[in-house]
Amino acid sequence: MTEYLIRRILQSILVLFLVSIVTFALIHAAPGGPTQVFLSPGLSQEAAQIQAKNLGLDQPVYIQYMRWMGNLLQGDLGHTFKNNLPVGEILWPTMQNTLVLMSVAWLFSLLIAIPWGIYNSTAEYGLSDQTASFISYLGFAMPTFWFGILLQELFALELDLLPLSDMYTMGREGEIGDLFMHLILPVTVLTLGFLASYVKYSRSSMLEVLNQDYIRTARAKGMKEKRVIYRHALRNAMIPIVTILGSDLAILVSGAAITENVFNWPGMGRLFVEMALAREYSVLMAITLITAVIVIIGNLIADILYALIDPRVQLARKGGASA
User: Lower Cβ count inside 10 Å, N or C end of the chain?
Assistant: First the structure.
C-alpha cells in the first residue's frame, strides 16, 4: 500500500505540472490580455508598453511561466495586475465562504441521497423510487439560475421570509443565525443538483450488488434482510459511490459559479467569473491549480477508501504489481 501511495503521489505531481502548463498556455492564448486593463482613452500605447514591461508581460510566455512557477514554489501566488494585490489575500477569504456554502449543501445532500438511494433499491419502482426519479430528472433538466431566481422571487420578494442574496445582512456580519438564513436558498439550489446524481448513483450501485449470486445465497440461508443489505451489499456498493464523492471533493473549494452569482455569494465561483472578465491571469491560475490539487487529493482519498472498504482491491493491486 505504501508503494502504491508513493507512486500515486509522484503521478499527481506530474499531473499538476501538466495542468499548470496547459492552463497557463490557454489563458495566455485567449483574446486580449492583462494589458487591456490599463488601456483607456487617455492612456497612450507607449505607456501601456512600459506598464507591460514593468510587469514582465513583454517576455516570452515560457519565461513568464518559469517565473510564476518559481514564485509559486516559494508560496507566492502572485499579484493582481490592476491593483497589485496579493492573490492569496483575495483567494483565502472567498475560499472560506465557498467552503461554508458547499460543505453544508454537500453534507446535507449525502444525508438524504445515500439512505434514500439504498431504500429505493429495495423498493424498486415504488412511490419513493418514482419520486426520487422525478426529482433527479428535475435536477438535471432545470437551469440552476432559473431555479435560484424562482426561489428568490417566492421566498424573498413575495413572502419576505428569507434574505434575497449576500452572505450576511449589512451590520450583522459574523452572526450565525443570520448566516443560516442566508444559506437556506443557495443550499436548496445546490442540494437539488447534488441529489439528481447521488440518489441515482447510490440506487444503481445497490441494485447491481443486490443482483449478485452471493446476495441470493445469503437470502436463501435465511439471513435477515437488514443484515444482507447493510453488512454485505452496502460495503461493495460504496465503491462506485466513493469514486463520485472523491471526484466532487473539489466542488467544496471551487464553488458553483452560477449559484454564487445568482445569490451574490462572495465565493470562489463568483471570483473566477469576475477575474476571467478582468483577465487577471494570476488569480485564474491560482484557482485552477487549487482545484486541480483538490481533485487529485479527492481521487487519492477515494483509492485509499477502496482498500479499506474492500480488501480485494488492495490484493488485486499487489497481484498486478507482481505480475
Answer: C
Helices (H) and strands (E) in the chain, counts: 15, 0
Do residues 307 and 251 touch, judged by C-beta distance below 8 A? no
Instruction: Write the DSSP string, 221-241.
Output: TT--HHHIIIIIIHHHHHHHH
Question: What's the CA gap between 181 and 252, in Å, rounded?
Answer: 20
pLDDT single digits (tens) 119-159: 888 888 889 989 988 988 888 888 888 999 999 999 999 99
Q: What is the pLDDT of residues 192-204, one digit of tens each?
A: 888 888 888 888 8
The answer to whether 259 touches 186, Cβ cutoff 8 Å, is: yes
Separation CA 46–CA 283 (nearest Å) = 26
> For 214-227, what is each residue's pLDDT tens digit?
888 888 888 888 88
> Rounded CA gap, 276 and 297, in Å?
25
* Beta-ladder partners of 86: 79
What is the reported pTM?
0.79
- Contacts of residue 145, defined as CB under 8 A and 6 or more positions apart, other chains included, come to 258, 261, 262
